[in-house]
Amino acid sequence: MRVTIDIDANQLRQIQKITRQKKKSPAITQALCEFVRQQQKQQFLERVLSGDTDFALTNEELEARDLYEAH
C-alpha cells in the first residue's frame, strides 16, 4: 500500500542509520514493524504482570521448550 507522509529529514536519516537501510521505504517499513513488535511485547508483559494471562506450563517447562525450539 502506498502512503504519503511527512517525516523530518533528520529523523529519516536516523531511521536509515539505525535500520541500516539505504532506501527510505525499507527503513520506514522496518522501523514500523519493530515499533509494532515492541508494543505487542509491552502489552503482553503488562497482561502477564497484571495476572490477566493464564499459562498452562510451568517455568521449567517453558524454559525447556524454548531451549529446544530455538534450534
Report on the architecture of this protein.
It contains 3 helices and no strands. By secondary structure, the chain is mainly α. The chain is elongated and about 50 Å long.
Uncertain ranges: none
Q: Tell me the fraction of residues in β-strands, as a range.
A: under 5%
Number of helices: 3
Determine the structural class based on helices, strands and strand pairing.
Answer: mainly alpha
Task: List the defining traits of the structure above.
single chain, 71 residues, mainly alpha, 69% helix
Layout of SSEs?
Elements: H1 9-19, H2 24-50, H3 59-69
In short:
With 71 residues, this protein is mainly alpha-helical. The chain is 69% helix and 0% strand. It has one domain.
